[in-house]
Amino acid sequence: MTHHVQLDLAIPAELPRGFSGYLENNSLLSPGYIETLGYDILFEHPIELSGSGCNGSCKATIRGPGVSKEGCTTRTWPITPPMLSSMNAAWGIWKDSFTTEGTPMTRLPAFSIYLATPFEHPVREAMTLEVGYVEWSEDLHGTYTLKECYLLPAIVEYEILVEGSVVSLPRNADQGKVLHLANNTNPFRWANDSTRQENTMISITSFMAVQMTTNTSVNLTPTSGVYSIEYYSMSPETFRHLRPGWTSSRSVVFNDPTETVVSEINQAFLRGSTMVGSWSNLTELVDPGVATNQSVMAAQTVTQNVFHSDMVWFAAAAAVQFVTVFFILPMFWGYWTVGSNLTMSPFSTALALDAPLLNEVNSAAGPCGVVEKLGSVKIKLGMTGVVGSGAEVATTGRLGLDKERVVWEPRRGDRFSS
User: Where do the TM regions start and end (predicted)?
Assistant: First the structure.
């Protein structure tokens, strides 16, 4: 069942100024919660709130901190088959020629992610993202692409899923929609004196850089005019962006990792914002007018038993039960005058009906007396009181229960008597 509820979420729309700590005398001093944030990201712990007001599964739209790609530049270099067997091949902004075991080799970029804090952005604290990736097909024609962007702090609109007190971003929703840039940060500068400089992003940048930075190169070795390719320093992040099928063909295609990097940084920012919702001075550390707590409407889905009771049918069923009890009750009336304990046990019924199997048991012994007397006796269902036997003599008897040793197993041609 789905209905709309109001959620009160302690998620500020911006990371507060100074979230990462501060620089003083060229040293970065980070608060203790930064270590907790990195630990939670590394081990993918759930993002938890102190409370949300959601009693099921709630989908809502919120504003939260993230990054916006700005000032992106893209450069592309062509790759041709002759280049793959040439020591003079070159693409990208670097190459390395060297010799291993007497064989000349050229190492060129194949896939890379480089994330860092820039010094040169004039307006606000930012990250620099540089990604490079090769793409070549079966015929060995292709390209190498190098993309560079600033990642600037921004307010982003996210579609979130809240389950109890746990917040998550549904698949493909973690990039969000950039609404506008945040203005509560200052450009990063190294300080050689005791001047304290607050930093918002640098600790997250440093942590994410360690997690995501990769630099995979391709080694080209000319051997009798035939190319030989060897990949160097392939990391898990490299395989994550390598398209399937490369091991069984000559085509090598890497996906552009830019959006993946942005998504993971956004998740880190959103996780960080849930850690500061209770700060008493939060409004002083974000831009004027930016919400520090959000009340949003959400579609709440609750799974519950749904039923409807028809009281007319219930009353009729209850009346039938009472009438049945009324008619059966006289059959048991006066049981206390019998002088023996009576139960609904089938042993009591068998004793009352004088079952032949219980002839050896006192008729007033009750079920316990039957168990004490015959508890070890094996019984069997079959023909009892058999008259006649043998392979050619028809057998007559009753179908019933008796001691196993005197019960006859019915055969074709046997007759049951009254």
Answer: 311-336
Q: Where are the domains of the chain?
A: 2-301
Tens of pLDDT, residue by residue over 183-236, are 998 888 776 666 788 889 988 998 999 888 888 887 776 655 445 556 666 777
**Cα–Cα dist 151/117, whole Å:** 10
Spell out the residues 6+ positions from residue 412 whose beta carbon is closer than 8 angstroms to its own: none
Alpha-carbon dihedral of residues 394, 395, 399, 405, nearest 10 degrees? -140
Per DSSP, what are the bridge partners of residue 161? Answer: 59, 168
- Of the two residues 366 and 144, the one the predictor is more confident about is 144
> How long, in residues, is the chain?
418
Are 194 and 25 contacting, i.e. CB atoms less than 8 angstroms apart? yes
Condensed to tens digits (0 to 9), the pLDDT of residues 344-375 reads 788 888 877 877 777 788 877 788 888 888 87
pLDDT tens column, 160-176: 999 888 998 876 555 78
Output 364-370 pairs: Cβ under 8 A, ≥24 positions apart: 364/339, 364/340, 366/340, 366/341, 367/343
Average pLDDT of the chain?
A: 83
> Rounded distance, CA 368 to CA 341, Å?
10
Average pLDDT for residues 43-54, to the nearest whole number?
85
- The reported pTM is 0.69
Contacts of 217 (CB under 8 A, 6+ apart): 96, 107, 108, 109, 110, 231, 232, 233
